[in-house]
Specification:
The chain has about 325 residues and is α/β, with parallel strands linked by helices. Helix content is about 30%, strand content about 25%. Helix 2 packs across helix 3. It is globular, with a radius of gyration of 20 Å.
């Protein structure tokens, strides 16, 4: 029996993504074969394809950072899941495929009854948003915060979760996306045509409690300048290269050491490999919020999994609001 994946055959634009066929093999000891029900399309998929990450994967590789699926066959020694169970994973790679093989310990339990196309947004984008809010910034009701890139997958998740937390929010987004930012409870600021730092300072002369940034570069310095004493900037963006990572670490150390009470905190999902407990707790919380419809993922477009190249092209165009997902045909 065969299955198909979408493979990055070399570095470059979405045209390098090609459909390939593979033999469906039995899972190895401790491994689980999963039929993919939905995969997310996210910026780390794009930067990995271009090699813009501190540890770039070798080509060819199958992108796909987050998946929802059904256990198709557990390997020998697997005890925590059985055939037919609904699971998720931060796969990092391999998600653009009809089937994926993952170690048992990397699987995340998923409640029955959730739409996979919506639930896959929880695995990465809502997880990042929840953890930067509650585990890194430790926000509380009434806090005044700025969200850089407020209209994207993580940005819209931050807005929804921030509204649930009772935050006063400002969101940077292009003017065409302001209606979404407003609808999600924030004051939109156009970073193209407005001096956004001046706008925030005028609105909040005492400073912000937190800034959330997934872009980096000058947004770190400018966002940091808007903090009150005791304020926190949480940086969760990809530094794009090892050199930039080292520069970022040096900048964080310098800014945090300044005697003004402000701090810069880094966030990465990679620490989930070393301490799974808080991640499993937060995924369970987010799946519950999704089931209760307290969060409602914005999905701009759904593509079949094998049309991942078109999905990547749309994401790179910069006009996406919310999420793009790759569901199996029955969830389109």
């Amino acid at each position: 029996m065969k299955y198909r994946s979408v493979t990055a055959t070399r570095r470059g634009s979405p045209e390098v993504l090609r459909t390939e066929e593979h033999n469906l093999r039995a899972p190895r000891t401790g491994e689980v074969r999963i039929r993919t029900l939905a995969a997310g399309v996210c910026l780390p998929d794009v930067t990995a394809r271009y090699g813009q990450t501190p540890v770039a994967p070798r080509t060819p590789f199958v992108p796909g950072y987050a998946i929802i699926g059904t256990v198709d066959a557990p390997g020998q020694g697997v005890t925590t899941v059985a055939a037919g169970d609904r699971v998720a994973a931060l796969s990092v790679f391999g998600g653009y495929a009809e089937y994926i093989y993952l170690p048992e310990e990397e699987l995340i339990p998923v409640p029955e009854g959730l739409n996979p196309a919506e639930a896959v947004t929880v695995v990465l984008n809502y997880l990042v948003a929840f953890q930067v809010l509650h585990r890194r910034a430790k926000v509380k009701a009434g806090d005044k915060v700025l969200i850089v890139g407020a209209s994207g997958g993580v940005g819209t998740a931050l807005l929804q979760l921030g509204k649930l937390a009772g935050l006063k929010m400002y969101g940077l987004a292009s003017r065409s996306k302001h209606s979404v930012v407003t609808a999600l409870g924030a004051t939109p600021i156009d970073y193209h045509s407005q001096d956004w730092c001046s706008v925030v300072r005028e609105a909040e002369p005492d400073g912000l409690d937190a800034v959330f940034d997934g872009i980096g570069g000058h947004y770190i310095d400018q966002g940091y300048s808007l903090l009150r004493r005791g304020g926190r900037l949480v940086e969760y963006g990809n530094p794009l290269s090892l050199r930039r990572l080292l520069v970022l670490l040096a900048k964080v150390a310098l800014l945090t050491a300044l005697p003004n009470g402000r701090s810069v905190k880094l966030y990465s999902t990679s620490v989930s490999k070393f301490n799974r407990r808080p991640f499993l707790e937060d995924w369970a919380t987010l799946f519950r919020l999704l089931r209760e419809r307290k969060i409602r993922p914005i999905i701009q477009k759904r593509f079949p999994i094998l049309e991942a190249a078109q999905a990547n092209e749309l994401l790179e165009g910069g006009q996406v609001i919310g999420n793009i997902v790759l569901p199996a045909s029955e969830w389109l």
